[in-house]
Design brief:
The chain has 143 residues and is an all-alpha fold. The chain has 6 helices and no strands.
Length: 143
Amino acid sequence: MRDTVMSAALSSDRIEGDDNVWTRRLVLFLRVMAVLSILKGLYHWAQVTGFIGGEEDAFESQPMAWQAATVYFAVIELVAAVGLWLATPWGAVVWLTTVVSMAVIELMFPGIYGGSLVVVGGEAVMLAAYLALAWMAARERPP
């Protein structure tokens, strides 16, 4: 009898209703974006420190605009990753700042990173996915 009651109590703790399915999906999305932001941030730091690229790609030999953008993304991507992993509101704001910043740099200043429409499209897809998940998660909560 005691074991039955204990197993019922334990199983009811583990079973969550479908009430927060969109919130759980949003948190999963934020965690995936956090891992992606860590990778992007480390990539930018690798560019700054010279771990990737040759002599002609050295950080010091790049234009000042490229250097400034690379340092900016090296820092902000890692800050965003921490906030995203913790699923904090400021993390989403910082991440949204990185997404919009990268899209603006690619579109408005193609001389810095090359103006890749693939990057802009990827950023737009991530932004749309976040907005859709956030909207659906907000609908789950009563007013």
